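Illustration: Retinol dehydrogenase 12-like.
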Amino acid sequence: MMAWLGFFYHPFWAVSTALLAAVVRLQMRNRWNPQACAVRLTGKTAIVTGANTGIGKFIALDFARRGARVILACRSEARGTAALNEIREKTGNLDVHLRLVDLSSMDSVRAFAERILKEEKALHILVNNAGVSGLPRNITKDGFEESFATNHLGPFLLTNLLLDLMKSSSPSRIVSVSSVNHKRGKVDFSHFHGKNLSYCMDQVYNNTKLHNIICTNELARRLKGTDVTANSVHPGIVMTEVLRHYSFWVRWIFNLIGFFFFKSPEAGAVSTIYCAVAEELEGVTGKYVDSDCSLTLPIPLARDAALAVKDFEFCERLTSKL
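Result:
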């Protein structure tokens, strides 16, 4: 028995793990480098939801470095202010601003959009980045399952409320941060009200990410001819705070594995930045961009045109009542 234990404690395993991690990290390198992209955003306005932490903060940081007027759409004033000060200090761009919004509340989304429409003359980039995973079952005051409200209905409503401003500012881009986890998602419209849902691990999150792609594709179809594009993106498996609602042991295992194999938030932001600024994506719409910045196909369910119309209209009805 001790001989077997000695075999597994052999330095070979540590070296092998380190080499495997190095190989995986090399394979995770993006084919597009934001630092090599000379695109400037001077005179452009961008909104990034969930910009106080994780990939959202690095997306906002990149936009600020390119000279954009950047609006950080955050729920926490304290954390949003900290991110605001950090971005201003690192970029020297003082045209970075914090606006508070709780995407799980349709009233908060409407108030945020109303302020944007009142204060901003243009909007060129909207990044729907904010998202949650692992929340326990909870129904919002609007009657929606909280994860569905935060991850999908809130961004869906926000996007639609700002569409006219984006059309008048065109060319403009809408980027929906989805996930490869959409492949394990299901479509059941009762889920929006918290019915027939499995709360095992990330199943609810997976469902919302599938809806993100479906509705973004339908939005892109509806926006044809307006010079406003809408695309979905997978950022990769990223070491962020998205698992903060899971148990300690789940987070511990994720962080342990992630230390070797997952992307940093800065690396995870690259594919979203690519969708928002890359010149080669000018006019490209209704696509799904993988974490390596390549165009790829989501699952067939996400490409079902009839389902997309049904899903979009269902979400319109839900949010128009509020």
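Reading the tokens back as a structure: Strands lie at 45-49, 69-74, 96-100, 125-128, 172-177, 228-233, 288-289, 295-296.
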